[in-house]
Specification:
Blueprint (H helix, E strand, L loop, with lengths): L5 E7 L6 H9 L6 E7 L6 H7 L6 E4 L5 H11 L4 E4 L5 E2 L3 H11 L5 E9 L5 E5 L6 H5 L11 E3 L1 H6 L10 H11 L4 E12 L5 H4 L2 H18 L6 H13 L2 H12 L4 H9 L1
Parallel strand pairs: 1-2, 1-4, 2-3, 6-9
Antiparallel strand pairs: 4-8, 5-9, 6-7, 6-8
Length: 277
């Protein structure tokens, strides 16, 4: 089997509490053709000390002031030479064997340009909160303002950069959605892997928890750029009903409830042990 090179980019800034777990989740994949790049924004906590501890596993890392998360990610993208690209934030994680599963999927689906998988939701103590089981993103739903791609489980072929470019650096919250819109507008094929590929950590310092003006600003900019189709701020009722019905028919709600009943409150290590058993 061809072993494609996978480039993982981690943007980092003052996440010393979590970054070691992020790094270990990536290097412990033991994927034989990994290019791991960390772009730190000049952290003032212990982040760089931790990064240096693992620099023998890194293809490149730097700690210097940048213009924000999207700029940091783009700096990593420009360094990346992999066939497949992704980014994992410095408080999030990859699930065990995720890279191997992604490589196998792309090898078996040569017509797919972009892949998404399911997402685990964990707290600051790495205990499980829930799971984000997703459907395969459809252009119809995106045009109706409904997006359900999990950024931490996003992987794509490097050639997409040549066609749609990197992230827009003036976006600081919805840069993943804007990137996806450009993929959809180019009619690129999106695939889905029905596996938990990554975990997003929810804690009081995340952008999601802080909310604020960056979200409303990005939403307004999406609307300005793409109008009331891809840039719609509020999904229309008909599409929401259809989306809900599809999730019912495909058992998404049932899967979510069953997962929460079994795993909520347990440490992620218990789940990974079960997956690897």
């Amino acid at each position: 089997m061809k072993i494609p090179k996978i480039s993982v980019i981690t943007p980092s800034y003052n996440q010393g509490e979590f970054i070691e777990e992020t790094i270990l989740s990536i290097i412990n994949q033991n994927y034989p053709n990994l290019e791991y790049i960390i772009i730190d924004g000049g952290s003032s906590d212990r982040s760089t000390e931790i990064i240096q501890r693992y620099e023998s596993y890194l293809s490149f890392w730097v700690s210097e002031k940048d213009r924000g998360q999207s700029h940091a990610i783009n700096k990593g993208f420009m360094k990346a030479t992999g066939d497949i690209i992704c980014w994992i934030n410095s408080d999030d994680i990859l699930m065990p064997n995720a890279l191997q599963k992604v490589a196998e999927f792309f090898n078996s689906n040569e017509d797919v340009d972009f892949l998404n998988g399911h997402l685990l939701i964990i707290d600051k103590h790495s205990k499980i909160i829930s799971n984000y089981f997703i459907l395969n993103q459809k252009d119809f739903y995106a045009r109706s303002g409904i997006y359900y791609v999990a950024q931490q489980s996003m992987f794509w072929r490097r050639k997409l950069f040549d066609q749609i470019g990197f992230l827009k650096e003036d976006f600081h919250a919805l840069m993943d959605r804007e990137f996806l819109i450009r993929i959809l507008r180019r009619n690129k094929k999106i695939g889905q892997l029905n596996e938990i590929l990554a975990g997003i950590r929810k804690h009081e310092a995340t952008k999601t928890a802080l909310n604020g003006t960056i979200w409303s600003r990005d939403a307004s900019e999406l609307n300005r750029l793409y109008g009331n189709s891809y840039g719609r701020k509020n999904p229309n009722l008909t599409s929401l009903i259809l989306y809900g019905l599809e999730k019912v028919l495909k058992g998404i709600y049932f899967k979510k409830v069953a997962f929460i009943l079994k795993w909520k409150g347990k440490h992620i290590n218990e789940l990974t042990k079960a997956v690897n058993a």
